[in-house]
Amino acid sequence: MTEPSRREQILATAADLFAARGFHGVSVADLGAACGISGPALYKHFASKQAVLAEMLTSISERLLEVGRERVARADGDPAAALRGLVDWHVEFALGHRPLIIVQDRDWESLPEDAREQVRRLQRAYVGLWADQLRALSPGLDRPSARAAAQAAFGLLNSTPRAGHAIPDSALRELLSAMALGALGVAPAELQR
Amino acid sequence: MTEPSRREQILATAADLFAARGFHGVSVADLGAACGISGPALYKHFASKQAVLAEMLTSISERLLEVGRERVARADGDPAAALRGLVDWHVEFALGHRPLIIVQDRDWESLPEDAREQVRRLQRAYVGLWADQLRALSPGLDRPSARAAAQAAFGLLNSTPRAGHAIPDSALRELLSAMALGALGVAPAELQR
DNA sequence: ACATCAGGTTAACGATCATTAACCTGATGC
DNA sequence: GCATCAGGTTAATGATCGTTAACCTGATGT
């Protein structure tokens, strides 16, 4: 009972295909074929093509926020530690799920209205999580600037899935972490307490 | 003779529409209507819908590279100064042409094959421009990592056009410059020589 | 006066696509 | 043994879209 396999297979292959060719560049026939079934069989698992995208994007936004909150809690009041945790988590997720990251910020606007609203809410909360820590770190920072800074950091971290895989993931992970922390004005690694 | 007005109007409105709804989300009828003409009249100015996108993207890639080279030359051997010049230029362009930036990294793959190749070449050269300066600044840095760092910086700088305009452009400009320089490990403003 | 032509127009064509309809089939509970 | 039903199939439908065709019109150079 633990394997609604088809459904998950569809979500996974859809992520790959959407990432490679864009939401509008993939037909339901393409998507079906890539799953070994064909065309309209998808409608036995999802209400529409948009529903596939909607489930994909809401679930990753939820997960990003959920684990993000966990990392902040784990830092227990130290904003620099919280930001290091947030950066680590975001890098880990982005490198582990490159297609999802690509789809998330490319095909966002192809969502149906209600799902778009839901994703926007989740993303706003995630931005707020980062912005709060940034403001705790530098007291002079106003909220809009802190939010803008958080979004710029996401841009940095989300950009690399698109790029070539010319360097190994472990090196990329450290490069991105260091750059993000540098951008945010947080001192990088120190003592693991 | 200095005003091929319609053509430029089409390119400008196409940039806005493509940025808002994506290349596939805009029909030629939409685009024509937004220009005050309608539908197939576009084909008097462009060979195809893809050709509009192609001209848009190649011209901005060319301009980005051209001025980038100029800024590097102006720094005359000082890599930190060159990077400050590159960051300034990129921020200026990104904030001045937000729709173009959005289209450039969202609808890249909708280009016809030859234009895609041309844009890729121009972007590779632009990345190389940044990577060279980064390597001149920190001698231990290998080329692939330098290129990855440059692309991450673009991600940071290109992300903000998408975001809300909650803070004034002048503040955003300074925030982005500071973050980009921080990410790249370049000391921010000093003496204007 | 007139041929040319740039820059419009509307109508028609041919693809492509998401979605629905109608039908099949094998397992499963009773 | 049999009704149910999940999960497939192919065929049909209706819309949208890029592109082409055929036609119109006003300015312009000669």
UniProtKB/TrEMBL annotation, chains A, B:
PROSITE patterns: HTH_TETR_1, HTH_TETR_2. Coiled coil: none annotated. GO terms for molecular function: DNA-binding transcription factor activity; transcription cis-regulatory region binding. Pfam families: TetR_C_24 (PF17932), TetR_N (PF00440). One of its GO terms (biological process) is negative regulation of DNA-templated transcription. InterPro entries: DNA-bd_HTH_TetR-type_CS, Homeodomain-like_sf, HTH-type_TetR-like_transc_reg, HTH_TetR, KstR2_TetR_C, Tet_transcr_reg_TetR-rel_C_sf. Keywords: DNA-binding, Transcription, Transcription regulation. Residues 4-64 form the HTH tetR-type domain. Residues 27-46 bind DNA. The keyword Transcription regulation applies. The keyword Transcription applies. This is TetR/AcrR family transcriptional regulator. It comes from Nocardioides albidus.
